[in-house]
Amino acid sequence: MVKVMAPATSANLGPGFDFLGLALELFNIVTFTPADDWTVTAEGYGAEKLAGRKDLLVCQGIEKVFSVTGRPLNGGVVHLENLIPEVGGLGSSASAIVGGLVAANTYLNNPLTKDVLLSLAVEIEGHPDNVTPAIFGGLIGVVKDQTSTNGYSYLKIPFPMELHVVLAVPELSVSTVEARKLLPPQVPLSDAVFNLAHTGLLVGACYAKRLDLFKIAMKDALHQNRRATLIPGFHRVIDEAYKNGAIGAALSGAGPTIIAFSPQETLQSVGEGMISAFAVQGIKAHWLSVPINYDGYRII
Fold first, then answer.
1. What is the mean pLDDT of the chain?
2. Which DSSP string corresponds to 157-222?
3. Residue ranges of the chain whose pLDDT lies below 70
4. How many whole angstroms from its chain centre is CA 42?
5. Ramachandran assignment for 138, one of left (phi > 0), alpha (psi -120 to 50 degrees), beta (any other)
6. Which of 252, 266, 216, 223 shows the shortest CA–CA distance to 26?
7. Residue 114, CA distances (Å) to 67, 121, 128, 133, 188 in order
8. For the chain, where are the alpha helices, taking DSSP H only?
9. Which domains does the chain have, with CATH numbers?
10. Rounded to an integer, what distance in angstroms lies between the CA atom of residue 48 and that of residue 80?
11. What's the rounded Cα separation, in Å, for the pair 38 and 172?
């Protein structure tokens, strides 16, 4: 039996659309043992929709590793403990994929490197900024690179240790597919330049520990305003985060979760402010503060 903790991730961070992702100390847990058929049980978020199914992303990850390594697999006993809210924006799908890949790879005594696991994870998930931090931890920038053996090059960026994460999680369903459809195939040159400049500023602010630059560096011209149409009160929530002490705030992934960064002393006021802003729109929400995950998945 193998047990793996795969972390939540916040992708598209600020202006880093399809480039930046951050791993969080919030996990989905996968337990796996090969068997003659599939038996899937689940608890936690979305358990009622997952139990008994063998078409899940976690099972696809397990099957992928066995297939790539040429090992036979008829099925498996899989138990899922889902602690990542499933509303969207926290990489629950990436966590499931990485959890399945790592569980199978660990069971087989690690024939595949982390770089190969990354390539397989992107094949299933489609977006490297979601899965890369779940594997390697921390804040990561990742790009396609045909010269690389696994097709991707990535850089781990030092995130300021004094910043804490505050998540506002509304009771609101936003489809990642629908959120992606809101984005045009082409954008004005001015928008592209805006995001290039702000992404550079955000990465530079992390290296230089210039917390005073985070608010301006987190601005975006490509996806947040367009996706805000699916999240009533989005701009009000962001404004309340800043009013209550956040030094940076943005849409997490495709939403509807919103992520803010704050010093320890303002965590509660930032969280409560964001929840109050959602309440004005008649949307129930809760907030939680989680540390940043610096190491990626864990094998128990």
1. 94
2. EPPPTT-EEEEEEES----HHHHHHTS-SS--HHHHHHHHHHHHHHHHHHHHT-GGGHHHHT--SS
3. none
4. 21
5. left
6. 252
7. 17, 10, 13, 11, 37
8. 47-50, 57-68, 92-107, 114-125, 128-136, 176-181, 189-208, 214-217, 224-227, 234-243, 267-280
9. 2-157+294-299 (3.30.230.10), 164-290 (3.30.70.890)
10. 11
11. 32
Three-state secondary-structure class, residue 86: coil
**What is the reported pLDDT for 74?**
94
CB count in 10 Å sphere of residue 77: 16
Strand partners, 7: 27
pLDDT of residue 50: 82
The Cα–Cα gap between 159 and 90 comes to: 18
Contacts of 199 (CB under 8 A, 6+ apart): 14, 15, 16, 19, 20
Neighbours of 181 (CB within 10 A): 10
What is the SS3 assignment for 275? helix
Amino acid at 41: T
Place of tokens 């864990």: 298
Q: How many CA atoms lie within 13 A of 235 on its CB side?
A: 6
Q: Quick one: pLDDT at residue 246?
A: 98
Q: Report the 10 Å Cβ neighbour count for 167.
A: 24
Q: Which of 71, 136, 133 is nearest to 104 (CA)?
A: 71
Residue 102 tokens read as 């790592």
The residue type of 23 is A
For residues 105 and 268, give the distance between their C-alpha atoms in angstroms, rounded to a whole number.
Answer: 40
42: tokens are 């689940």
- Contact assessment for residue 19 and residue 141, using Cβ atoms and an 8 Å cutoff: yes
* Sole residue written with tokens 């977006």: 127
Residue 91 in tokens: 């990489």
Phi, psi torsion values for 289, nearest 5 degrees: -115, 130
